[in-house]
TrEMBL record:
Protein name in UniProt: Efflux transporter, RND family, MFP subunit
Organism: Emticicia oligotrophica (strain DSM 17448 / CIP 109782 / MTCC 6937 / GPTSA100-15)
Keywords: Transport
Domain of life: Bacteria
Any coiled-coil regions, as ranges: none
Keyword hit for Transport: yes
Phylogenetic placement of the source organism: Bacteria, Pseudomonadati, Bacteroidota, Cytophagia, Cytophagales
Length: 382
């Protein structure tokens, strides 16, 4: 019985110690957290301020060369992107095109076969052969009509038949041209069941949508060709940044795949219409074209904006801690608060402060900021 009482007493003491230790640990954690929170504020004596040599000043506005970062895609004007089809349809007999291949204007890029081409050429030559007979008949009836040897009706019929055949020959000739056949060179010895599809531009093959033996309907696109002579970069720019841009302004572009490979560009057109997201396209011309830049390629770009007004602080006002940038704001004659900022470009000893709107009417430590950071770190370690 006595042993049981001692055992229960021991358990009680252990439980009490455990609770006591738990409370102590919780308080220590709270104290540590409090220290971390308070470590963003440095309290100094007048002697310390003098020893460190702290100087404060408000944020300044200076003409600053800033970099506007935007993104967009490689694009071409509509007239430089050509879809190739067959106006009259037919079976694809042969083609050597593969995506990425360069073709020249007038070069044969495909051969199409179909019976309708034979019939079209036959109709044209047959109709054309009737023209000379009808012209002679028209002249004969005209002379007879003038001498009243034939009636006006017979003469008018001959005239109408000649005009009808001339119209038919003209329409058939245009159909031949549409199919890629030159009617002026067509004879009974040159009738062919196939036609050549010629490249309408100098450019690169971007798409091949057909295969040998397939029937190509008139509405089907066989190939897409891109003329890269006027390829450009279309970038999205928000409304608030449009007033900073001008025609002729320099742009540096790069891809995500090769960010170190830079492409110099120049702004050639600034859009005038804003979309629902309050941005518009600006178009830039590549100074040197790289054939690896095909339409649709995603690119990042940096635009140098000269003489733009920016909120700046001296470089010494900023300190880096745990990968972030901070400044010290004067709260009173002896108190300074460390505040995180977003730093922009640095030029001539000054650094741009991006989120300066939140820090208006404040005085910043411009000398001695690093010493304040060290004092806070030492305080936190204590």
């Amino acid at each position: 019985m006595l042993n049981i009482q001692y055992s229960m007493l021991g358990l009680g003491l252990i439980s009490l110690l455990t609770i006591s230790c738990g409370k102590k640990t919780s308080n220590e954690a709270a104290a540590t957290d409090s220290t971390v929170v308070e470590s963003s504020i440095a309290n100094l004596t007048p002697q310390q301020i003098k020893s460190i040599g702290i100087e404060t000043a408000p944020i300044e506005q200076k003409s600053f060369s800033t970099i506007l970062k935007v993104s967009g895609r490689v694009d071409v004007p509509p007239q430089n992107l050509v879809s190739v089809s067959v106006p009259m349809g037919g079976y694809l007999k042969s083609s050597h095109l593969i995506p990425g291949m360069f073709v020249r204007k007038g070069e044969s890029i495909a051969i199409i076969e179909d019976q309708q081409y034979i019939q079209l050429q036959q109709d044209y030559l047959t109709t054309q052969s009737k023209i000379s007979f009808l012209e002679n008949e028209y002249q004969r009836q005209r002379e007879l009509n003038q001498s009243k040897a034939s009636s006006d009706k017979v003469f008018q019929q001959a005239e109408m038949e000649l005009k009808t055949q001339r119209i038919l020959v003209k329409s058939l000739a245009e159909k031949l041209k549409l199919a890629g056949i030159n009617p002026e060179k067509l004879t009974e010895n040159t009738i062919s069941k196939s036609i050549n599809i010629l490249s309408p531009i100098n450019g690169y093959v971007s798409k091949v949508n057909v295969n040998i033996g397939k029937y190509i309907s008139p509405t089907e696109v066989m190939f897409e060709l891109v003329n890269t002579s006027d390829i450009h970069l279309a970038l999205k720019v928000f409304e608030k940044d449009l007033d900073k841009l001008n025609i002729g302004q320099k742009v540096t572009a790069y891809t995500n795949t090769y960010p170190n490979k830079k492409y110099p560009c120049e702004i050639i057109l600034i859009g005038k219409n804003l979309n629902e997201e309050r941005n518009t396209d600006i178009h830039c011309h590549f100074e040197t074209y790289d054939k690896a830049l095909i339409p649709g390629t995603y690119m990042n770009a940096e635009i140098a904006i000269n003489n733009a007004k920016a909120n700046v602080l001296p470089e010494d006002a900023l300190v880096r801690f745990e990968g972030k940038q901070y400044v010290f704001i004067k709260k009173s004659d002896s108190q300074y608060e460390m505040v995180e900022v977003q730093a922009g470009n640095t030029e001539k000893g000054y650094t741009e402060i991006i989120n300066a709107e939140k820090l208006n009417n404040q005085n910043f430590v411009v000398k001695g900021a690093y010493s304040l950071l060290m004092s806070l770190k030492n305080k936190a370690e204590e």
